[in-house]
Automatic annotation (TrEMBL):
Residues 14-89 form the Transcription regulator PadR N-terminal domain. SUPFAM superfamilies: Winged helix' DNA-binding domain (SSF46785). Gene3D superfamilies: Winged helix-like DNA-binding domain superfamily/Winged helix DNA-binding domain (1.10.10.10). It comes from the Bacteria. This is PadR family transcriptional regulator. PANTHER family: PADR-FAMILY TRANSCRIPTIONAL REGULATOR (PTHR33169), TRANSCRIPTIONAL REGULATOR PADR FAMILY PROTEIN (PTHR33169:SF27).
């Protein structure tokens, strides 16, 4: 995988949005929100202008127009350049083709689970499982509704998110079963550790 000049996922979202047509930053933000990209990309609207400036500095976008409507301030319209299209294509190709190590916070919590008593972990994971099941049901309902108006191509990230939630719920359920039945190897030592403190 090639090292990128920019690695901020928001920059990639901006490039992909400008692929549609030239826009000013406020319109980019509105388009991202309208298309639901804020559910798959962390979008800090305050830093959007900084991202656009960085893209311009690297030659991936350029000013195509400056609009003025009535007494409103001027709005700079940006369009994607040929270099920006190439960068977007290469960046997307890398992301789709090569798995990358990510650091989800739940994985961090699992790696440090020993600081909690196993009985407390059971209670907490039961709460998590309930929340995951509610989230999955809600996402599935929303997705079914979206299928009525949007082509599936524009919903694949929602499908992926749903499947990840369902997979996590399945894993949590299995781990809970091991904890409750006492089948988890080392659980007695884990309990004993907390009885000493």
């Amino acid at each position: 995988m090639r090292r990128r000049k920019l690695r901020n996922p928001l920059a990639l979202a901006v490039l992909a949005t400008l692929w549609q047509k030239p826009m000013h930053p406020y319109e980019i933000a509105q388009t991202l929100r309208r298309q639901g990209k804020d559910s798959s990309t962390k979008i800090n609207y305050g830093s959007l202008y900084t991202v656009v400036q960085s893209l311009e500095k690297h030659g991936f976008v350029e000013v195509t127009d400056v609009e003025r409507q009535g007494n409103r301030p001027e709005r700079t319209v940006y369009g994607i350049t040929a270099a920006g299209r190439q960068e977007t294509t290469e960046w997307m190709s890398d992301l789709v083709a090569y798995p990358a190590k990510e650091y989800p916070i739940f994985e961090t919590a699992l790696s440090l689970l020993g600081v909690l008593h196993p009985d407390d972990v059971v209670t907490l994971l039961e709460e998590r499982l309930e929340a995951l099941l509610v989230q999955a049901a809600s996402s599935r309902g929303a997705l079914e509704k979206l299928y009525e108006t949007l082509p599936r191509l524009f919903l694949v990230e929602n499908e992926f998110q749903l499947h990840m939630v369902e997979a996590e719920a399945e894993w949590v359920r299995g781990f809970l079963d091991e904890l409750k039945s006492g089948a988890l190897p080392g659980i007695e030592e884990w309990k004993a550790l907390h009885e000493k403190t």
